[in-house]
Structure formats: C-alpha cells, structure tokens
Design brief:
By secondary structure, the chain is α+β, with helices and mostly antiparallel strands. The chain is 30% helix and 22% strand. The protein is built from 19 helices and 29 strands. A six-stranded antiparallel β-sheet has the order 1-2-3-4-6-5. A three-stranded antiparallel β-sheet has the order 7-8-9. Strand 2 and strand 3 form a beta hairpin. Helix 4 packs antiparallel against helix 12, helix 8 packs antiparallel against helix 11 and helix 11 packs antiparallel against helix 12. It is elongated and about 185 Å long.
C-alpha cells in the first residue's frame, strides 16, 4: 500500500485487519521510532455528530485504562474526514483463530484465559467503562500465552442499538440479552459475553446461531444454551458451572463483579472448589446464600440444572439444555426463610423498629441534619483533563483547585492531569481543595550512538542516559568486529522516552567457512558448490588456463583460495577454466649447429630436447639435419623434440684386395 502519514507522525505501512467500523494498520511512530497499530474509523461513522462525540469520550476513557491485559491506547485524533486511534501493536493470534485451528481447548487453559479477561474487565469497570463487544476476535493471545483485550471504548461508542449495522450485528453471537433488547447495560453484560466466549473456547461451538444476526440475538433473549458437557464431555464441571452463572439471562443472577468471576476461574486452574452462587450478584440478597461453602457443590450444580426442570429436546439429539441460573435455588431459599416458631415474631417487630429508627437517622444524615452527607460532595475524576477543565469541574462541585505539581508521564499528554488527591469519587467537604499532578509529557531523550562499542561500555552509556538496555540475539557482521555493538533500536540520535528500552545487537564478527575444492569441476558445478558453502559470485578467469592434467576444456584448472582453507564467508574466490593442453609448432632447425638448434626450440616453447646422430652427405658434420617431430608440425609444449645432428658422409667401404 502507498505509505500515508496520519497525525503528522504515524506512517501507515500495511493493512493488518478490518471490520464493519474501522480498518487497522501497522504504522511507525516517527516521533518515538516505535511500531504501533492505528485504527482508522470508516468515514460514514465520522459524519454522525452523536457518534463522534461519544467516540471522543470513550477514546479518552480507554486511554486511561492501565492493565497488562488491556491493549494500551497511546493517542487519538482527527484526520481529514475521520477519526483514528493509536494503540499498542500486539504480536499474537486472536482467540477466534486459536479456536478455529485447535478446536475445544483444555478446561484449565480456558479458565486461565477467562481469568485474564476478567482482570481487564475489572480495571475497565472500575473506570465505569463497559466494553460492550467482548468476543474472541477482540481477545489476543500473545506469544508468551498472555491475554490482551482490544477495543475498549470503541465498542461502546459504536454499538449502541441492534438496529445499527456493522459490528453490532456481527457480534450478535456474543451480545447479552439486555443488549439485544436495547436496555441499559451494566458490567454484567460484559460478563455474559465472556461466558459465551468461554463456552465457545471449551466446546468449539457457539451456544446460539441463527440464519441472520437478528435471529441469533433473539436466541440470546429467548432460548437456553445446550450444556457444554453435552458437546465436550471432557469439560471440567466447575468450568461448566462458571459458564452457567455468567450466561444467566437475568443480569442479577450473574457474578457480582468481574473480580468474583476471576476468583472462581483461578480456583479451577488450582483444582480448588469454586464459590459459585456465593459470588453471584443476586446471591448476596438471597436468604442463606452467604453461607454456601465448599461443601455445597451439589447445590450449586442443582442451581444450574434443577432436577425439576425438564430437558428440552431438539432434532440433533442434544436433549439437555442449560437452564437459567437462579430459579429453583431462589424459590428454595425463599421458602427456607419463613419463620418456624411464633415466639420469633416479637423479635421481628423489635428488629423492624430498630431498622425504622436507623432509617430515620440515615435519612437525616443524608439531608444534612447533622452536617453530614448534604454538606459533602463527590470529587470529580480529573485524570486526563487540562487545568482549565479541572478548575471548572471542581467549581461545578463547589470545590477548588489546590496545589499543582508537575511530573513526566509516558502515557498522559502534556498539560493533562496525571493524578489527584483526594481521589475521584471520594466525599469531601464543600470548598475543599483538590491537589493535582500535571503532566509535562513524555521525558524524551536523545538515544546515544553506541555502535562499535563493546557491550559493557554501550550498556553503561545507555543507562547513564536514562534508558534500559536489552540485548538481542547476536549476529555475524562482515564489518563490525566480534564483541562490538553492530546495531541498536531505537536508532542513534532519535528521541525516546526516558526509561524505555534500547535493544542492542552484538556482533559475532565475520562468519567463517571452508572453501571447497572445485578443481576439475565444470563451471556451473563449481559456482553452485562455492555458493552453497557461503562464497557466492566467484570470479571466472577464462584465459591462461592451458592444462595437460585438466584436459576437458571449461573445467576448473585452479582456484585463488586453495580448497579446504578456512576464510570469512562472502570472500570472492577466482576460478580459472581449462583451455586444454597447449600445442606449439616445431620450428625449422636444419643446418643449425646443435647449440643453435636447442636455442631455437627453447624460444619456440619446447624445453625438452634430445640428440640423435646420423650420417649425411649434404649437411656438414655437427649441424642439424632436422627434428622429430618434423618442423612445421604441432606438438604438446611438454613433448620431447629430437634434434638430428649430422656425422658427415659415411666412410667409404673398404676395398677387397
């Protein structure tokens, strides 16, 4: 994709995801030199003023969430005709993909994942942020098997009613009954959605599925899910109970908080009995509920699957369904609360009178009769506000701004409030002062250049500059000697937050290799052999390669680095190709003296000669009659040339007397 710059600092490099409301891109933060993810909202949503107002509010709320199980929000803003959010780039796989690839997950693994999601939800609910779109697509499983929950705040801004298109209908498999009906949501809605996610992770199937998103949402309201153990008999019975409580149709019958649900999931991981009904929201007001302990597992099972509830039958053979939590147990508890003896009635009247008096006193306190609650106000949440906004918020509550300290912050932008004292939602007297700490922004510092320094010196220099140091996997380098820093991230001279990590890579020096012996190989075979050994692109010499030993023209006669020699990989090796044996023309030496003939042959390239004498009537004695091979013919340069020397005419034959 062509690179686009968002917010004058985020360079989009590739699209990594998308949905009905937004597209997600990998990007580089050119100010801090780090990789981030940028979610760019579709323009059709940005044109809705109601949506944009809620989007801004929720983006700010999500940015304030700090949890190891929540994807960090770094920044947000408006670009051209739409809005964007900058967030932590998570390297991992979403839970939906994990379930598709692996099928039903082991119960303890499901419980571990659920417990971490509960931690994320507990943090969000503490800031009055309801996710509204919990589904496996928004739950990332990192390489170290930790969970990161995505899209806090965005779902709330966009998923307001079931009549909207896009992600609401796309998430119909996970919406709570009250969300499907468009009723006001509470944190219990997120717990229902998480129960559906755990159901799917434990069985490999979704509890409700219809032909259309609307049909699926209606099933969330009107139908009961098939018990997970009917689909996966290996599921831990306690995990099935937890899923049952979380997926109760009535929000009051679900877990009281994400933290209480998390506690039960952790007990499953530890093979401990769960609290079950004692942790459910409605259980706190049910008679006898607080007394349920570890010995009441049978009662808890009956609560989820009452014996009196007939099983529904469908055409697939799944005859047992998961009934709504709370029916039978609540009725039994109510019956148990009836007084058994008449003598208790007097005590009941006394208790009612005491409660009435206490109610009057509490009411008087709330009305300010005793200088109580009416004379006090709640402290607003100032985190993320500017000083001017905070001043107005406090004024609206009859409070005033107190001391303004400053501090650097890696997450809170410059001039926004990091913390406050008293804390948000605390009750204080009117006209009280609230002290705040205002952000100076990130403490950005220049990253020193530690390349070609030894590891100890580089570490000290970076730490002295205020950075943490992490050492990456060492690598070979053709240029940097062994033991020295060959690269660093962030790059030298760039700006990075104080306390952030600089990764250095130490050089192993040049990688050594053994040069193979390629003599007598063909040209192509020699090049392939050298390349595979780490010596690519050898130089080829096609001249001067005459050889009597390598007679095949084009084969390697010799190489510039002898075979089996250790040398740095990447070194250029020169190979010389054979031109075959060298042949020369025998010169004419007739009439030359023996010495002259030998010199003539040497000059012609023949260094090996021998002498043979013959009688000649035409050539004076001592001169050459000729050569063998004869002059004008060709011979190998190493061949022996015979010089034939005249002995003069033969002696006359003796006369017979």
């Amino acid at each position: 994709m062509p690179e686009v710059l968002i917010g004058q600092r985020y360079r989009l490099t590739e699209k990594i995801g998308g949905g009905g409301m937004a597209d997600v891109y990998r990007a580089v933060d050119e100010t801090l030199g780090r990789n981030v993810a940028v979610k760019v909202m579709h323009e059709r949503y940005a044109s809705d003023p109601t949506f944009t107002a809620r989007f801004r509010q929720e983006a700010q709320a999500a940015a304030n969430l700090s949890s190891p199980y929540i994807v960090n929000i770094y920044d947000w803003g408006q670009e051209n005709n739409t809005y964007y959010i900058v967030m932590e780039l998570v390297r991992g796989t979403d839970l939906k993909t994990v379930i598709r690839e692996r099928g039903p997950l082991p119960s303890k693994e499901v419980a571990e994942i659920g417990a971490q999601v509960c931690s994320a939800l507990a943090t969000a609910h503490g800031y009055d942020v309801i996710h509204r779109d919990i589904k496996p697509h928004n739950i990332m499983i990192t390489a170290d098997h930790n969970v990161k929950v995505m899209d806090f705040g965005i779902a709330r801004a966009g998923n307001t009613t079931l009549t909207q298109t896009g992600s609401v209908l796309g998430s119909a498999h996970y919406v709570s009954p009250e969300q499907a009906q468009g009723r006001q949501l509470t944190p219990a809605s997120d717990l229902y959605s998480l129960g559906v996610v755990l159901y799917e992770a434990a069985t490999g199937q979704m509890p409700f599925d219809g032909d259309t998103p609307i049909a699926t949402a209606l099933k969330q309201v009107n139908e009961q899910a098939v018990r997970p153990s009917r689909i996966n008999p290996q599921i831990d019975p306690n995990l099935e109970l937890v899923i049952g409580y979380a997926m109760a149709k009535d929000p009051r019958a679900r877990y009281a908080t994400a933290s209480t649900m998390r506690a039960d999931l952790i007990r499953i991981v530890r093979d401990e009995p769960i609290l079950g009904a004692a942790a459910v929201a409605g259980a706190a007001t049910a008679p006898g509920a607080a007394g349920i302990g570890n010995s009441d597992q049978t009662q808890l099972l009956d609560r989820v699957t009452p014996a009196a509830t007939p099983a529904s039958t469908d055409t697939t053979g799944n005859t047992t369904v998961m009934p709504q939590v709370g029916g039978a147990a609540a009725a039994a508890a109510a019956g148990a609360a009836q007084p058994a003896k008449k003598k208790r009635r007097a005590w009941i009247w006394i208790l009612l009178v005491v409660l009435l008096v206490a109610g009057v006193l509490v009411g008087g306190y709330l009305l300010g009769w005793f200088g109580g609650a009416r004379s006090q106000v709640r402290v607003p949440n100032l985190r993320g506000s500017t000083v001017a906004t905070a001043t107005q918020l406090l004024k609206d509550q009859n409070l005033k701004l107190g001391r303004q300290d400053t501090a650097y912050s890696p997450t809170i932008p410059k001039d926004q409030i990091i913390s406050q004292n008293p804390r948000a939602n605390a009750r204080v007297d009117r006209e009280s002062a609230v002290n705040v700490v205002v952000s100076l922004g990130q403490d950005l510092r220049e990253v020193p250049d530690v390349r070609k320094m030894d590891q100890a010196s580089a570490k000290k220099k970076l730490e002295d500059a205020g950075f943490k140091v992490e050492t990456g996997d060492p690598k070979n380098s053709p240029d940097v000697p062994s033991g020295q820093v060959m690269s660093q991230d962030p790059a030298p001279k760039t700006k990075a937050p104080a306390g952030s990590t600089v990764t250095i890579v130490i050089s192993l020096g040049q990688e050594m290799g053994t040069v193979p012996d390629v003599t007598n190989m063909s040209r192509s075979q020699a090049i392939t052999t050298l390349t595979n050994a780490g010596f690519p692109n050898p130089k080829v010499d096609t001249e001067g390669g005459y050889s009597d030993t390598v007679s095949t023209v084009g084969n390697v006669v010799r190489q510039s680095i002898q075979g089996n020699t250790r040398t740095p990989k990447g070194t250029i090796v020169t190979i010389t190709l054979s031109q075959g044996p060298l042949t020369l023309t025998v010169p004419n030496i007739t009439g030359q003296s023996q010495a002259q003939a030998q010199a003539t042959l040497r000059n012609a390239g023949f260094s090996n000669t021998t002498i043979q004498q013959e009688f000649s009537s035409t050539v004076p004695s001592g001169n050459a009659i000729g050569a063998s091979p004869a002059s004008g013919t060709t011979a190998n340069r190493n061949a022996t040339i015979t010089i034939i020397i005249s002995q003069g005419p033969p002696s006359p034959a003796p006369t017979t007397p």
